[in-house]
Amino acid sequence: MHTLQGIFGDERKRKAMFEVAKTEVLRTVAYTLLRQAYGVIEPRRPMVEQHPNFFDEVRRFEIYLIMQALLYSNGNKAGAARLLSLNATTLHSKIKLHSIDLPLEPAPPDPDSNLQLAEVANRREVELTSNIETLKTEVMRSIARVLEFKANNQSYAVDFDGQHGVKFYDEVMKFEIELLTQALSHVGGNQRAAARLLGLKTTTLNSKVKLYKLKVDFIAA
Description:
The protein is an all-alpha fold.
């Protein structure tokens, strides 16, 4: 009896885990497609041999985090700030500083919106019904393009939680450490050479090495 309970219990657990996994996969695909649609491009992993500019790379990374938060909050700045563990004024300042376009800004209320939505929904239903096969094909092609892009372009992975968000400054710090560590490793720990690779002053790089307490085997500059 206990054996049977164990078998069926395990089966139920496996099904539950499968459903959770399936939901996560669908959510990932959906938001990947949305990011593509809204131009939220995942940051590529820094390649120091290509001499990237440190501050330009960090700026692009900050824009990516902010756009991610705006996407998950449907353009609501207060919601995006919460997802990034920022106060609203700081987020607003960064949006202005980086000249971030807000394609997800909520539209002003329209008194005829309900009627318009109903008409659009009816038209869309007819279109979808008549073109369902075309729609399915296009969706599959879009997913394939996204997956191909991700496979061919090594991105800097950020586990962005759409419900709980991330800590903005922690993620930026990790990104900066990745850049600095890569550059220092590439030149055998020579700070002056690493600074040249990243378009930084040597004193700026040295300050960041101390700030982040990076453990690198240095050679004389």
